[in-house]
Design a protein that fits this description.
Helix content: 40-55%
Largest sheet: 3 strands, antiparallel
Order of helices and strands: EEEHHEEHEEHH
Strand content: 15-25%
Radius of gyration: 26 Å
Shape: elongated
């Protein structure tokens, strides 16, 4: 990649290779894709990723964003009753450990700390319902992530959308993605 530089040292254009006889007052400089002058000319910030070149690359990036948002939501909190409870991996392990104890016959009341730092006392049956709510939370987010990925895939493979239109449609979909 080469940038075209005018007599005032301003970037005025791009080309893959400079012409053999450049116009007077114009110079060319070979640059890498992350050169600050090239980024400035393209209106991008240094460190910003290059825009996707193909619908497949746009879909790959969209799926990475979907995965990131899915896991962020899954490992946040879920509701049981009128309280939020933590659902990070460590909390999921603790919940399953308590459910295992209940299944092995432990019927004592359980005192559990909710995500809003309140101590909540639950019966064994109520705690099993809490575990079911955690499972439903995770399953719902998994299903939503899969639906978002299917939509991105459909856009990427839509034969009526030329490359740049598909890339833009994928980005628009990801920007407006809803999670419940």
């Amino acid at each position: 990649m080469h940038i075209e530089i005018d007599q005032h040292n301003r970037v005025t254009g791009l080309c893959l290779s400079p012409p053999s006889h450049p116009p007077e007052g114009v110079a060319y400089e070979a640059v890498a894709h992350d050169n600050p002058r090239l980024l400035e000319f393209q209106g991008r910030e240094p460190g910003a990723p290059l825009p996707p070149a193909t619908p497949e690359e746009a879909a790959e990036r969209a799926n990475a964003t979907i995965n990131e948002q899915w896991h962020e939501r899954e490992f946040a909190t879920f509701e049981y009753g009128d309280r939020p409870f933590q659902c990070d991996p460590q909390s999921q392990i603790r919940i399953m450990g308590q459910v295992n104890a209940i299944l092995m016959g432990d019927t004592a009341e359980i005192t559990w700390k909710s995500a809003d730092n309140e101590m909540v006392t639950l019966t064994a049956s109520e705690f099993q319902q809490l575990a079911i709510a955690a499972k439903a939370h995770c399953a719902s987010l998994f299903a939503q992530a899969q639906a978002h990925k299917a939509e991105v895939e459909a856009i990427a493979n839509d034969p009526t959308l030329p490359g740049e239109m598909a890339i833009a449609a994928i980005q628009e979909y990801v920007d407006g993605m809803a999670w419940t």
